[in-house]
Each structure stands twice: as structure tokens, then as C-alpha cells.
Design goal:
By secondary structure, the protein is an alpha/beta fold. About 35% of the residues lie in helices and about 25% in strands.
Length: about 260
């Protein structure tokens, strides 16, 4: 299965805009459920907009979409530290939306890496991101003093799925960056659905937009969002959970048979 590159599509007027995490959410569930969701989006590009809100970086997203996943029109990547538009298979940061992120982070990467060098339970990920530092986390050996070290440096920490440890600019995460993009594009908030499955999606699900924690979500996320009226807790896994929420919020006609 392959999908066309978006060409400067204006999604502000779309009936429905899906802002979705990737791993476990848009990429979660059965192959059949993913195919149903992806083809439905592609068949309704005039009325459905797509934003990826992910911890993944632009290089990964490009390779993913070249491999058979629908291209988004926009990307909130790197756990909210990248805000970009997609044009003809290229991901272009939107500089005015990244000014605050860049200013807040400064040139902190090397300082963070030095401070957490050989910290128990943390293994530095090889990719050098622009405005974040990321580690694989060994929960059994992790020394949680890392949180205090990072806070004292003026940054935020984020643990996801008990496997990943991110150091982020203070106050920057998926939710604030998604809200910044939605406002910038002039998208009516009632038309947006945010979808996620782990704690690094919490700020996105808490930010006030209609949202879904898909089936199979991390229990820590479910505990945090269970009482939020704007968050639908889906039974269906991954891609099917997204469609379940689309129906629950009456956002767009579903594909036949879904």
C-alpha cells in the first residue's frame, strides 16, 4: 500500500483533523484495522486532515510514510520540540512556532549529556535531536535522582512506557506544541481529535482538545485521564480505537463496515 505526498493542503477547513501519536496508536492494532483507518483517511483527504504528534523524529516519519503509511499535512515531532509542515515528502520546521522552543532550550544538549553521562539506568540514544536529549531507560537500575538533576538545570523530564527518558525544554511537550499549531493554522478546536497511548501523550490528552486513549494504553496514562470528560477511553486497540472515538464524538462518517 502506498499513499500520495500532500501538496500544501490547507486543513483549516477540514471537517475533521486527527492529531495522533504513532507507536501504539496510529501504528497500533491489527493489520486489517490499520489498513481500514489509513485508506479511510486517504479516501477523504478533502474532509480529513492529519497531524502526527510523536516522539519520533522527521527522518523516521519520512521513512515510515515512504513505507506505506499516509503522509500527514503537519508534524509535531520529537515529543513536541519540532513543529513542521509536510510538503511533497519533505518535513519543514515552521520557524515562528519553534522560536520559543529554541530560546528555552538554548544550547543545552551537551550540558545535559555531560550531567547524565553514565547515570544508572540511562543509555543515551544515538540520534542528536535539536531541542531534546533522549535515553533508553532500564527501570530496574534507574536512579531517579536524574529528575532532580535535570530540574535543577532548568529543563523537564518525561518518562514514557517505563522505557524512555526524555529531557525537554521547560514547559514544552506534545500538548502545548499541538495547541500552538492548531491556533496558528486557524483550525476550529471542536474538529480536532488527539489520540495517544502512553504517558508522553498525557499533555496532548490533557490540553482540552477532544481526545482518545486507545485500547491497550499504558495504565499510568489511563489513571491520569479517566475522569476527564473530553477524553474517550477506547476499548478497541490502536487504529480501531481511533475510529471508535471518531464515532463517539460524531466527528466524521466512518468507513463502511467499521
Amino acid at each position: 500500500m502506498s499513499f500520495d505526498h500532500p501538496h500544501n493542503r490547507d486543513i483549516a477547513g477540514c471537517r475533521f483533523v486527527l492529531a495522533t501519536d504513532l507507536d501504539g496508536t496510529f501504528l497500533g492494532g491489527s493489520e486489517e484495522d490499520r489498513a481500514t483507518l489509513y485508506q479511510w483517511i486517504e479516501d477523504n483527504r478533502d474532509t480529513i486532515g492529519l497531524i502526527f504528534v510523536t516522539g519520533r523524529d522527521p527522518k523516521f516519519i519520512g521513512e515510515l510514510c515512504d513505507g506505506g503509511v499516509p503522509w500527514p499535512e503537519y508534524v509535531v515531532g520529537d515529543v513536541g520540540t519540532t513543529i513542521a509542515r509536510v510538503d511533497d515528502g519533505k518535513i519543514h520546521p515552521i520557524e515562528p512556532l519553534e522560536v520559543e522552543i529554541a530560546d528555552t532550550w538554548g544550547n543545552a544538549g551537551e550540558t545535559v549529556r555531560s550531567a547524565l553521562d553514565e547515570h544508572p539506568g540511562l543509555t543515551l540514544q544515538p540520534t542528536e535531536f535539536r531541542y531534546r536529549v533522549s535515553y533508553d531507560l532500564d527501570a530496574e537500575n534507574f536512579d531517579d535522582s536524574a529528575h532532580g538533576i535535570v530540574r535543577d538545570m532548568g529543563h523537564d523530564t518525561l518518562v514514557s512506557d517505563n522505557r524512555y527518558f526524555d529531557v525537554l525544554p521547560r514547559g514544552i511537550s506534545k500538548g502545548p506544541s499541538l495547541r500552538r499549531l492548531v491556533t496558528h493554522l486557524g483550525i476550529e478546536e471542536s474538529r480536532v481529535l488527539a489520540a495517544g497511548d502512553t504517558l508522553n501523550d498525557l499533555s496532548m490528552l490533557e490540553c482540552g482538545l477532544q481526545a482518545v486513549a486507545v485500547g491497550g494504553s499504558e495504565q499510568a496514562l489511563l489513571d491520569r485521564v479517566s475522569r476527564l470528560p473530553h477524553v474517550h477511553t477506547a476499548e478497541a486497540i490502536g487504529a480501531a480505537g481511533i475510529l471508535e472515538a471518531v464515532e463517539a464524538f460524531n466527528l466524521h462518517p466512518l468507513p463502511k463496515g467499521a
